[in-house]
Specification:
elongated; 6-stranded mixed β-sheet; alpha/beta; about 425 residues; 8 helices; binds adenosine monophosphate; binds magnesium ion; Molybdopterin biosynthesis moea protein, domain 2; 4 domains; Molybdenum Cofactor Biosythetic Enzyme, Chain A; Molybdopterin biosynthesis moeA protein, domain 3; 26 strands
Length: about 425
């Protein structure tokens, strides 16, 4: 395992006192690798799970040539450019009930969508384009169809032996359907990772605590819970830990014994009671950064090797190591650093292909102040204008404690590292929350 110190020396332009968001990404990509344990789960338990190996199709999909329309199947070689084709209806083919008779020249078979194409027939004229011609016959106009129309070919979706889904794919509703369509009752998925989290601070109250002077109710544990749950990991809520080195150390140890990753908030700044970093350092390795971004400047990342843990009381689960994310305390900074850094790192830990959020372009409805040399994530409200283009306006106060701004926003305006002030009407990138939050 590469040490944190070694990763730092290998990274171009690594400056912990003013590290770019891109450099943090590169660092975490080197630090966090996938867990390897896997298990077979039933299709209905697989939603949101990550494939541990390719799903190879055991069958052709569709398994036979079949009709894409309700209509009449015939041999398309009989079509002529100049005159309608007159065909006798020899019988009918239903979905799940194939036509087994023979079809001669000048004949067709009435066919329903999904029914197997009778042998020798390759073209379907849709029922609404065929003209009745007496009791037994139809007429097909030359303009109605071409040879091969409205027929789905054996294996046109998937050939037997081909990978239908790739390792690292996170199973969606569509993938559940695809797996089921192959007749596979189970899939092999990566085991669910466990993520423990706690909030720090003497001023932080848990729900149910009586309010007191100078104290605030914990919000970070609840946003982190929501973010982790959406990601599909197993969550371990470890409550609030006061600004006390001994308590913090004990909490980190307990968390790292149980979990693959540990997320804390608060206590990573320069204040007198900011002990989080020092405790990470005592227990394992740590990198502390002042990130060139807003919000979310201070952040600590560390690792505790399992050799450094007394794991006797937890034989069932013994991760090789636990990754530690010491996030800032301010509620918006927690969410933004989670989205920017923790989420992709956890996806890698989960064995998942990292899904970069798709950035949309929107025109700014207001001027935005922005200093080049840092990445800013401003809370925005994107709407569609009458001309069909997207417009984004700010939620107002961008203070990193204003959690309301994250609720009102439907996306983050991403002002990139080198970007400067934005004028009204300038195009900006927006990371929409849909599918991420
Ligand atoms: P810190 O980095 O610990 O100094 O925290 C920065 C700011 O975030 C302080 O105003 C804290 O009170 C606030 N804060 C820290 N943790 C939480 C939390 N879990 N919920 C709400 N606010 C918090
Ligand atoms: Mg604090």
């Amino acid at each position: 395992m590469t040490s944190i110190e070694q990763i730092a020396t290998e990274l171009q332009g690594y400056d912990p006192h003013n590290i770019s968001a891109a450099c943090v990404h590169a660092f975490l990509t080197r630090l966090v690798g996938p867990v390897t344990d896997s298990q077979d789960v039933a299709v209905l338990d697989a939603l949101g799970r990550v494939l541990a190996q390719d799903v190879v199709s055991p069958v052709n999909v569709p398994p036979h040539d079949n009709s894409a329309m309700d209509g009449f199947a015939f041999d398309g070689a009989q079509l002529q450019a100049a005159q309608p084709l007159r065909l006798r209806v020899a019988g009918s083919a239903l979905a799940g009930k194939a036509w087994t008779g023979t079809v001669g020249a000048g004949e067709c078979v009435k066919i329903m969508t999904g029914a197997v194409m009778p042998a020798g027939l390759d073209t379907v004229v849709p029922i609404e384009l065929a003209q009745r011609d007496g009791e037994q016959h139809i007429l097909v106009q030359p303009s109605a169809v071409k040879l091969g129309d409205n027929r789905r070919l054996l294996g046109e979706d998937l050939r037997a032996g081909q990978p239908a889904l790739r390792q690292g794919h996170t199973l969606s509703p569509a993938s559940l359907g695809l797996v089921a369509s192959l007749g596979l009752p189970t899939v092999r998925v990566v085991r669910r990772i466990k993520v423990a989290y706690f909030s720090t601070g003497d001023e932080i109250l848990s729900l149910g605590d009586a309010p007191r002077d100078g104290a605030v109710y914990d919000s970070n544990r609840y946003t982190v819970f929501g973010l982790l749950t959406r990601l599909g990991v197993e969550v371990i809520d470890m409550g609030v830990v006061g600004d006390n080195p001994a308590l913090l150390k004990a909490a980190f140890l307990r968390a790292a014994q149980q979990a693959d990753a540990v997320i804390t908030s608060g206590g990573v700044s320069m204040g007198d009671t900011d002990h989080t970093r020092a405790m990470m350092k005592q227990l394992g390795e740590v990198a502390f950064w002042r990130i060139a971004m807003r919000p979310g400047r201070p952040m600590a990342v560390g690792r505790i090797a399992s050799a450094d843990l007394n794991n006797n009381n937890n034989k069932e689960h013994k991760p090789e190591s636990a990754v530690l994310f010491g996030l800032p305390g301010n509620p918006v900074a927690v969410m933004v650093t989670f989205l920017a850094f923790v989420r992709p790192a956890l996806q890698r830990l989960m064995g998942a292909t990292v899904t970069e959020p798709v950035l949309l372009r929107a025109t700014s409805a207001e001027p935005l102040r922005k200093k080049p040399g840092r990445t800013e994530y401003q809370r925005g409200i994107v709407t569609r204008k009458s001309d069909g283009t997207l417009s984004v306006r700010s939620t107002g106060d961008q203070g990193s404690g204003v959690l309301r701004s994250m609720v009102e926003a439907n996306g983050l305006v991403v002002l990139h590292h080198d970007q400067g002030n934005v004028a009204v009407g300038d195009a900006v990138d927006v990371m929409m929350f849909d599918g991420v939050l």
